[in-house]
Specification:
Blueprint lengths: L1 H9 L5 E4 L1 H9 L3 E18 L4 E14 L13 E5 L2 E9 L5 E6 L4 E4 L14 H12 L2
Parallel strand pairs: 1-7
Antiparallel strand pairs: 2-3, 2-5, 4-5, 5-6, 6-7
Length: 144
């Protein structure tokens, strides 16, 4: 609980990048929930769609829980971009699993927040999503 409360206090004040468990902590801090996946995501060949570009990225993953979206109508089977209100203002779902549709990434529309469920730092592993670190650096420069 203390991690969630700490992140809540920093939302909007400091740029945030959440990776894997950090993505889940950010989700909980934003007022979302997590749920246990029927089948966890483990390994180096999980396809994820960037909903902004429609590009499929091959990712490394290792998690059994996922962030649950706030939309009652969301059945996690569509690859559509969605926005929602949170404690930090408007947020956007940026990435989804191609296999099961779960939320794999979020970004702040009004706040410097970026989070992904998978591991762009995995080495050896796919490097399709290494751009995430460049996006975060640009976000930090904008707040400097």
């Amino acid at each position: 609980p203390y991690a969630i409360e700490t992140v809540k206090q920093l939302l909007g004040w400091k740029p945030m990048l959440g990776i894997c468990l950090g993505h889940q902590v950010l989700g909980l801090s934003l007022g979302l929930h997590t749920h246990k996946l029927t089948f966890g995501h483990h390994g180096a060949n999980h396809p994820v769609m960037d909903l902004r570009t429609r590009k499929i990225e091959i990712t490394s993953q290792n998690h059994n829980f996922a962030v649950r979206l706030p939309h009652k109508e969301d059945d996690c089977t569509t690859l559509k971009a969605q926005q929602f209100d949170s404690f930090a203002g408007r947020m956007e779902i940026t990435h989804r699993s191609v296999n099961d549709g779960c939320c794999e990434g979020m970004a702040g529309i009004e706040s410097p927040i970026l989070s992904i469920q998978y591991h762009p730092e995995a080495s050896p592993g796919p490097h399709d999503s290494s751009y995430v670190f460049g996006q975060f650096l640009e976000m930090m420069k904008g707040r400097g």
